[in-house]
Amino acid sequence: MTAEKSRDDILNRIFSISEKIVAFDGIDDIFEHIVKTVTLLTGAEAATIRVFDLSTGKLKIAKGFGLSSGFLSQPPIKIGEGITGKVVLDGKPFLTSNVLEVGHCVHKELAMLEGIRAVMSIPLKTKKNAFGCITVYKKHRILLQNMTFLSPVYLHRR
Predict the structure, then answer these.
(1) Among 25, 78, 83, 71, residue whose Cα is nearest residue 45
(2) Which of 81, 48, 82 has its CA nearest to residue 62?
(3) What global pTM score does this model have?
(4) Rounded distance, CA 132 to CA 23, Å?
(5) How confident is the model at residue 154 (pLDDT cuts 50, 70, 90)?
């Protein structure tokens, strides 16, 4: 590959990324795109993004897809609380095939109402800390390859 062709390829990639960025009206649109895409690509029924809210010091659901309004309106949680709070605290992914058997799951009743059985949660990280997580929900087991698929989100900022 010539230097000119390589430069053109890089410029085309940058242009493609910038086109995608301007297609969104704001962070809410970006989060919506992420939860829908993650749900589709993992074959899950639903997904949420939780992010750290500076004003409350807790993790709030910023966007969800495939879940009831009751599930999405649950109150923010403390870092370290529940599955997602622990994922953010530890900065490590979590996977279970039966959320009802997880001792630190604080919303088992919501999981039962939604028909959720399997949960996979991946931290969203900066270079130093996790600031939120993407969580995928399924009515059946989650395959390990889906964890591998989402791991670039986790590994990107390690």
Answers:
(1) 71
(2) 48
(3) 0.77
(4) 24
(5) very low
Tell the residue number behind the tokens 């600031």, with chain if given.
131
Confidence band, pLDDT 50/70/90 cuts, at residue 45: very high
Closest alpha carbon to 74 in 117, 104, 107: 107
28-155: CATH architecture? 2-Layer Sandwich (3.30)
In degrees and rounded to multiples of 5, residue 138 shows phi and psi of -135, 155
**148: amino acid identity, one letter:** T
Strand order in the sheet with 46-53: 77-78, 58-65, 46-53, 130-138, 118-125, 94-96
Is pLDDT above 50 for 153? Answer: no
pLDDT in tens, 83-136: 999 999 999 999 898 898 998 998 899 898 999 999 999 999 888 889 999 999
The contacts of residue 78 (CB under 8 Å, 6+ apart) are 57, 58, 59, 85
How do the domains of the chain map onto residue ranges?
A: 28-155
SS (H, E, C) 26-45: CHHHHHHHHHHHHHHHHCCC
CB atoms closer than 10 angstroms to residue 24: 13
